[in-house]
Amino acid sequence: MSAEKKHRLLHDQRDMLLSLAPLVLVCLLIAGLAGKCSFSPTGFAGPANAVSEIKDVDARHSLEEAARFFPFPVRTPAAPDTWRTIAVDRGEIKTSNLPSEQISVNYLSPAGRAYRVTQTDATVPALLSWVALSDGEDKGAQDIGGARWTVTAQGPNSAWIWDDGRSRVALTATNGDETAFRLLAAAVAAAPVTRPDGK
């Protein structure tokens, strides 16, 4: 019998423990990973200290560089006090004609919520479609810093859009706070402008 495989009825407790050990290790590993993660409605999920580990970026340089190539004026707003600038991205917004350029800066508020400021020469309808608010509800307008911002919302998602004639600026967030939107709107309205001719 020693040279042959044991019949399962002859397995002792030691054999059972050895068989279960790998399964127990896998379960402990999964439980450990789950314990280190957290859910956040701000869009940041992962380890509980993930927000503090996000690195700041220099948005001003990216915005000034984009202004050299974009056919519309680009503003370089300063982040509100105690806010952080965490990401910059450039891309295109699809329109009925040629795609429009866009540059977006992501900010993190002191409350840990993410807000995005997008600048583009796309039309307002195209911009609303791009931020997934084509079917959003018109919430009126806010006059801040000499600029009129139209507010659109759908569920927890909101967009404040300013059309200055040559470009559009959208402030977007999920579960955003009106005070935070107003701070960003004031910063954008007061920001220096770099025009396509570099002036």
Quick synopsis:
This is DUF4245 domain-containing protein. The chain has 199 residues and is of the alpha+beta class. It has 5 helices and 11 strands.
Notable characteristics:
199 residues; alpha+beta; Phosphorylase Kinase, domain 1; 2 domains; 7-stranded antiparallel beta sheet; two-stranded antiparallel ribbon; 5 helices
Question: Could you walk me through the main structural features you see in this protein, from its secondary elements to its overall organization?
Answer:
With 199 residues, the protein is of the alpha+beta class. The protein folds into two domains: 10-40; 59-194, MucB/RseB, C-terminal domain (Phosphorylase Kinase, domain 1, 2-Layer Sandwich). The chain has helices spanning 13-36, 50-53, 59-67, 124-130, 178-189, and strands at residues 37-38, 46-47, 74-75, 84-93, 100-108, 114-120, 137-144, 147-154, 157-163, 168-174, 193-194. Strands 4-5-6-10-9-8-7 form a seven-stranded antiparallel β-sheet. Strands 1-2 form a two-stranded antiparallel ribbon. A two-stranded antiparallel ribbon has the order 3-11. The longest helix is centred in the first third of the chain and has 24 residues, at 13-36. The N and C termini lie far apart (91 Å).
